[in-house]
Amino acid sequence: MSITKPKKPAYPTLPKTPTGITGLDEITEGGLPTGRPTLICGQAGCGKTLMSIEFIVRGAIEFNEPGVFVAFEEKSDELAMNVASLGFDLKKLQEDKKIRIDHVHIDRSEIEETGEYDLEGLFIRLGYAIDSIGAKRVVLDTLENLFSGLSNQAVLRAEIRRLFHWLKEKGVTAIITGERGDGNALTRQGLEEYVSDCVILLDHRVINQISTRRLRIIKYRGTVHGTNEYPFLIDEDGISVLPVTSLKLAKQVSTDRVPTGIPALDEMLGGKGFYRGGSTLVSGTAGTGKTSIAAYFANETANRGEKCVYFAMEESPNQIMRNMRSIGVELKKHVDSGLLLFNASRPNMYGLEMHLVAIHKIIKKFKPSVIIIDPITNFINIGSISEVKNMLVRLIDFLQEEQISVMFTALSLNTIVNEQTDEGVSSLVDSWLLVRDIEYNGERNRGLYVMKARGMKHSNQVREFVISDEGLNLIEVYVGPEGVLTGSARKQQVLLEQTGKAIHTHSIGRKDREIARKRKVLEAKISSLNSEYESVEEELNKVYLEDELKKEILEKNREEITRIRRGAEDTNKPAGGK
Amino acid sequence: MEFDETAIDKKWELRLYVAGKTPKSVTALSNLKKYCEEHLKGQYRIQVIDLLEQPQLAEGDQILAIPTLVRKVPEPIRKIIGDLSNEEKVLVGLNIRPA
């Protein structure tokens, strides 16, 4: 579906006239063939008249090419009324000679046919209208009404052929609209598509009670063009055809990071948050706080002064703002300052493709740096899994090109279908946060995991995700022999540990005192032993001294005796002497 | 534009739109004159408008086909397209003769 950039050809190519219709000029690579007739065909109510009038009006306003609108069905006033809602002022444009509306009225009851005739009158009228304002663009809406007013088919067919040639000779870029015929026929008469140089088929299909308008270029002589069906949207700005996104994977990437608004979550993502232009999926069961995470992200974006669009698919903006106020996130002020835009629509408001077109349009207009789609789950109601995935691929693709970060939320139920969307989408996104209920001990707590985060370091651990009046926080869960504990079980465990510590310190104190006492006892013992030793020593010393003393005295005595004997009795030799 | 000055208040006012002097236009005009003389003698007025000269007049009477005969009076407006070769149809169409 990618459209190659127009190469510079060496030879002149078909000149094209831009329509000014969003997206159509991209698909046709420049517009409709200049100076040639184009057929726009389709069933009733598919937007043929609107597309052709937009061609004329935009031509007159944007490209300064006056145009003639020949209405075979609606009167000029009715037409003006019908397109007034798109902001086209046909009256003013007619007064300024920018456009001219010619109502061709054919009523069979008023007309009798006898003999030969031709449609020269129509040619003259048209020629006069073109010349009077110097028109470059012409619309004939719907030419085949001639067939209901006139009965000579042979003449009509010949004259319509002549009309196409005549338009080419006039050099005007023409749009002819035609009702779709029975079966596969593009037009009722099976004529216009052969004489037109470009055929655009508009379609309006209802699948699962949801209608989607689609556009396809069936033929375009002398040029390449997109061949797929492109969805288009009619709203207050007219027609917008979904611009084709290239499906080549060659985009600029940013290394810039955007914080999530939850510091603890940033911490889990390597301390910085998501990559700019990245896509994030937050999935989880009902009531796990997905919207809260998304609102935090939106709030953080607005706080940084960047723009954010919040596509609410389930809740109304007021509901979200009220609910987020309860956890301390004030989104109202960002809405008032114009940084945050809420866009609430039910998924089944229109088809998938229409959602995509609508999102495109809003993004192109608002130019946000972050968008949030909350939730994507309900898209499954309006399309098959592969269709939803396809749509999201194209959305992510477009967002990456525009360097817009996106956060999807997805509700995961325990049904196969939803698991599949979860998984289907998760392969597309850059990071995936999973919020899971941890049911334990009679209560439910939220656990947050970072399932993946491409290109950044991220925590592999579960965190308990706590929503309180102060806001969101992530707390490390207790992982112990009893397993992962959260909520009151975690608190209980913490208390238990604190008690344990107190008891522990207490018992340590007691032991210390015991030791001190023991030491005292022992020290006392040691001192008594010391004194005992001293007394024994003294005793021993005493004996020794007495002995010395005795010996000395004995020596003295003997010497005395010896001296006495020498004096008195020399013969009396000491008997006991040595 | 050519009309009979004396027939200004005639009962029948007919306009024939043509584009140049084509065989069809010439046939139509001569047929018309013939029928009028036969059936409406003295009560009619024929105005021939050549759109090649006055293209702006085509829009007013919602002219597509050439030649077109328009019965302006009496009301309601009736249109007959073609070279008017079928007398019966013309007379019925102009309400000169009941169908």
Automatic annotation (TrEMBL), chain A:
The keyword Phosphoprotein applies. Residues 1-23 are annotated as: Disordered. Residues 15-255, 256-488 form the KaiC domain. InterPro entries: AAA+_ATPase, Circadian_clock_KaiC-rel, KaiC, KaiC-like_dom, KaiC_dom, KaiC_N, P-loop_NTPase. Keywords: Coiled coil, Hydrolase, Kinase, Phosphoprotein, Repeat, Transferase. PROSITE patterns: KAIC. It comes from Mucilaginibacter pankratovii. This is non-specific serine/threonine protein kinase. It holds the Pfam family ATPase. The keyword Hydrolase applies. It is an enzyme of class 2 (transferase). It comes from the Bacteria. Residues 519-571 form a coiled coil. SUPFAM superfamilies: P-loop containing nucleoside triphosphate hydrolases.
From TrEMBL, chain B:
Residues 15-96 form the KaiB domain. This is Circadian clock KaiB family protein. It comes from Mucilaginibacter pankratovii. CDD domains: KaiB_like. SUPFAM superfamilies: Thioredoxin-like.
